[in-house]
Amino acid sequence: xxxxxxxxxxxxxxxxxxxxxxxxxxxxxxxxxxxxxxxxxxxxxxxxxxxxxxxxxxxxxxxxxxxxxxxxxxxxxxxxxxxxxxxxxxxxxxxxxxxxxxxxxxxxxxxxxxxxxxxxxxxxxxxxxxxxxxxxxxxxxxxxxxxxxxxxxxxxxxxxxxxxxxxxxxxxxxxxxxxxxxxxxxxxxxxxxxxxxxxxxxxxxxxxxxxxxxxxxxxxxxxxxxxxxxxxxxxxxxxxxxxxxxxxxxxxxxxxxxxxxxxxxxxxxxxxxxxxxxxxxxxxxxxxxxxxxxxxxxxxxxxxxxxxxxxxxxxxxxxxxxxxxxxxxxxxxxxxxxxxxxxxxxxxxxxxxxxxxxxxxxxxxxxxxxxxxxxxxxxxxxxxxxxxxxxxxxxxxxx
Length: 399
Prior knowledge:
The protein is of the alpha/beta class and 399 residues long. The chain has two domains: 1-42, no CATH class; 76-195 and 236-242 and 260-393, 3-Layer(aba) Sandwich (Rossmann fold). It is 47% helix and 9% strand. The protein has helices at 24-29, 45-69, 80-87, 101-106, 109-116, 131-139, 153-156, 163-177, 180-193, 206-211, 252-265, 276-303, 317-326, 333-340, 366-393, and strands at 11-15, 35-39, 95-98, 121-122, 146-150, 232-234, 240-242, 307-312, 344-346. β6 and β7 (240-242) form a beta hairpin. The longest helix has 28 residues, at 276-303.
């Protein structure tokens, strides 16, 4: 005698209301519940499942092998959740690095730990203004440690609403508003990203590939500058190191990135619907406001015993020439130190720091970053010590 559940294998009985509306007669007269019998096809489900799994594994393996064949290696995605995990590690007396991508590449965490006796926390963000993170640390009343802040004028002084500001603001927002689901997702994805190349979201997604389609500028539609490809590795501490194949300044990858920096660091022309004089006046006002905001944040941080030093990291080639022309030192670096009363290290002022060359014009190689950090540490310790001595003799600044 067949079991009472044996028919379930051959048909699925569901209420009709899931498939059609009851007719008017059915609504009026009621009656027994209507049923719909849906037969399940007699096909080899087990074989289909095995086939689908094999196809998926083969496709993933082929894509992984292709990504490795074009030069990619396993590394973490440096996203907002990874940044948040490091921001959460900040303690009251931590040594923290903030800024743009140059301290990501140019500072070696092991050397800094050896020189300062504590493990630094890397909070710099590629393509970001340092101000949002600096302001967040200044507002964190529990933090009174040391900040090493990078200064690249085009990024540091970027006005609100621009990509450099948005990058920093989104990271800070994620830290204060990260959900349990986002935190769990990052926790689960990190082990996979450390072993699988194709999970690199900055380079190997469909949207990124579509963005690589080069379109020419045309009236009414200016194409944004192209972003550089992924040319570094990132670990769980966000320690960033340049790939070896980018270390040759005459290699194809380095030369490609060199030509990307120039349009990316060139400011766009003033909008046609605003007089140039008015636009330049507004830009000057915005830059002045940024200096005031940074000064207020620095003074607030120093008043509770915090120490900060600004660092201008090396650049080379055409990018260095562009930066010196568009953002001269007298209009950017000098006002920053004057308004904040904070110490600063400009790499070209020191013979032992000025000889480093960036193969792609903006960042140091993995080997040079170790030597550069080793030479930078004595200057940082001297500047930070002298700034504390100066503040002990002078009245505390007021906001």
